[in-house]
Structures are given as C-alpha cells and as structure tokens.
Amino acid sequence: MNSALYPTYARADISFARGEGAWLVAENGDRYLDFASGVAVLSLGHEHPHLVATLKAAAEQPWHVSNLFRIPQAERLARRLAEATFADIVFFTNSGAEAVEAAIKTARKYHAANGQPERYRLITFEGAFHGRTLATIAAGGNPKYLEGFGPPVEGFDQVPFADLDAVEKAITDETAGVLLEPIQGEGGLRVFPPAFLSDIRKLCDARGLLLVLDEVQCGVGRTGKFLACEHAGVAPDVVALAKGLGGGFPIGACLATREAAKGMTAGTHGSTFGGNPLATAVGSAVLDVVLEDGFMPRVARLGALLRQRLAELEDRYPAIIGEVRGEGLMFGLKMRVPNGDFAAAARAEGLLTVLAGDNVVRLLPPLIIDESDIAEAVRRLSAACARLAAPAAKLGAA
C-alpha cells in the first residue's frame, strides 16, 4: 500500500499502540525500551499522568483564541520560564525551528533598533543543526540539507567547531552575534567545552554581539541543569527551546533578555498557533515536574551512572564503540561500525535509539527513568554489540 505521506523519512516498519513511562508497546505486542524519546521530546516519558490530566482539563477550555487576546496560560508559562532562567521575556512558537527563527530575528532586530541594521550576520559552527526552514538550514550549513532549495539564505558565517580564533577572525562590521548549540545533537553529540562558552560570552560582550543559544535539544533539564549553558556559568542573550518543553505536545519558545528583545515590538513578529492555551498549559505541567526540588540533580546522578555503564561497554567492545559523548541524559556513542547497523541491532534487542552525524548513535531517554531502566538499556546495548561483534569474529577466524 502506497502511503499518502511525503516520502521524506526512512521510517522503521513499526507502529506503536501504547506507551508507559520509558516503554513503548508495538501493535504486535513487542515491547521497546525507549531511549529515543521522540528525539529528546518525551522528557517525562509516555502517558505521564500529570500531563494527561492537564491536557484533558485544558481540552475542556478554549483551545485557541489567537494572540489578538490575552492568554493567561501563556503568560504564566512565560513568567515561569523567565524565573527559571536568565530571561526576562518569551515568544512562543510551535517548533524548535520556529524558535530558532525567532531568535535569529531577535538578534538582527536588536542591532536595527540600535541604528545598525547592517549588523545582521550570525557566526555559526560546523556540525550545527538548527532546523529545516530555509533560514535554519542556511545557519546549519549542511550541504545535504541545502541541496536543491535554491540559494542559501544570506547572513551566516560558519567556522570550525569550538575554534575561538576562527570566531574572532569571522567578526566584521556586519556581525550581529554568535549562534550555537551548547551540545550539538544532530551533529554527533559534540559538547562545547565550558571554557569555550565562557570565552565566547566575553568576546560577545567585548564586541557588542549577542550570544544566541539553540537549546532545542539540550534544554529543559536534559543535561541535569535547566539550560545546558548553566554548566559553564554562562548567561546568554537569547535562547531557543522546544522538544522537551512540551513533553510530546508541540511547543517552542524563544527566551531573551528585555534588552536583547528591544527591537521586537508590536507587529514585528507573530504566530497563529504559538502560545495557544492548550500548548502552554501542557508546557506548564512539564515545568511542574522538571522544576521540582531534586528533579534535575536526579537527572545528573542518573546521567553519571549511565556514563559509567557506557564507558564499561566501550571498554568491553572497543571494536564497536569508539567514544562516549554527552552530558546528563543526553549521550552519543561514536561508532566504529556503521551507526545505522548498530541502531538496527539495538532495535532488534528491543531498544530504541536515534542516529546522529559523525557516525554517532544517540541515547536520549525520558528524564523519568530509574536505575533499573539504565541496567536494562545497557544489557540490550551489550547484546547489540555482541550481535555486531560475532560476524567480525567469525570473519577473523576464517
């Protein structure tokens, strides 16, 4: 049967009937431990009771009224995000790409409001992924995503990963700021060193640039801090969030200081669905859990345990796993075998993972996992390694 969907995804031939916590059950009854979380989206796992109850209650109130009217749910979520972070002000979107678009526009408009409209360019980094819109694929600079869509959107200057000298050399009179992911997700779970982020903050301050962070994947507690940049003690000017903010419900947000957002006045930007009552009610429910005392320290503790177990796996299968990368509950295994082969082997063992660039397999479990889930995941990862090691051993013996 031919699907009526665009064929833009290479979908695994599995569909799921239900989920609970960190587990998914396929229509045929097979159970999978979900260490993909819908690509870091399901921060509280599947069918979290507080999210379900919140969504049901919100569905019995107006779903949508448009941003032509006040939306108390959005105002409450914005206030809570500001209180939890560096930010003063928030713009809500429907996705991460839209949040990054809003961040790009915020940075450009800031300089225009200061009488310098020529300062519109952002410095970005090799390996970045900022979304699939025309502007965000240009910011990411991946030729595979740019091909066939005409001339790339102007305004982005890409430099090598974590190269401070290259950043300094790329600054011109047209530079508005620096845009980066503290941890590159799609780019292979590459973590910017804290010292580098601190140096970038100082450089931006010295040169009158805005520091714009894409925390769509690494934000909302995934690394054991609400924002990943907190590990470096860095306060940005603008941050894009999405994915885990809705726990599965589509929502994104652009957070900024009031100064950075000074150019975003009435009529300069908008969104039909962004910040509607349904989405922002669920977003607040996610924060009810993530901002609870002890929740993020628990994520950090479980992340340290998972890192230790993954390092043991790397030692046991050095021909399969080359490196363990990441922070909190956001890990990548740099493979010595094709990452697609390893992901398929893990899926055959009932463990869901996510591919990334640089031949990496991502592990992005729900933040509500426990020690038993980690033990089970490592057991299944070990079995996947053994599957791939066995043919190589037979080939060597022959």
Number of E-type strands: 17
Succession of helices and strands: EEEHHHEHEHHEHEEEHEEEHHEEHEEEH
* Amount of helix: 25-40%
| Number of helical elements | 12
Q: For the largest beta sheet, what order do the strands appear in spatially?
A: 4-12-11-10-7-5-6
User: Could you give a short account of the major beta sheet?
Assistant: 7 strands, mixed
Q: How far apart are the termini? A: 43 Å
> Could you say which structural class the secondary elements and strand pairing correspond to?
alpha/beta
Strand % is 15-25%
What is the strand and helix layout of this fold?
Blueprint: E1 16-20, E2 23-26, E3 31-34, H1 37-40, H2 49-59, H3 72-84, E4 89-93, H4 96-113, E5 121-125, H5 134-140, H6 143-146, E6 156-159, H7 164-170, E7 175-180, E8 183-184, E9 190-191, H8 194-207, E10 210-214, E11 238-241, E12 252-256, H9 277-290, H10 295-316, E13 321-327, E14 330-335, H11 339-348, E15 351-352, E16 354-356, E17 360-363, H12 371-397
Parallel strand pairs: 3-15, 5-6, 5-7, 7-10, 10-11
Antiparallel strand pairs: 1-2, 2-3, 4-12, 8-9, 11-12, 13-14, 14-17, 16-17
Helix pairs in contact: 2-9, 3-9, 10-12, 11-12
Structure, described:
With 398 residues, the protein is α/β, with parallel strands linked by helices. The protein has twelve helices and 17 strands. Strands 4-12-11-10-7-5-6 form a seven-stranded mixed beta sheet, sandwiched between helices. It has a four-stranded mixed beta sheet with strand order 1-2-3-15. Helix 2 runs antiparallel to helix 9 (277-290), helix 3 (72-84) packs parallel to helix 9 (277-290) and helix 10 (295-316) runs parallel beside helix 12 (371-397). It is globular, with a radius of gyration of 21 Å. It starts with 15 loop residues before the first strand and ends with a helix. The model has no long low-confidence stretch (mean pLDDT 96).
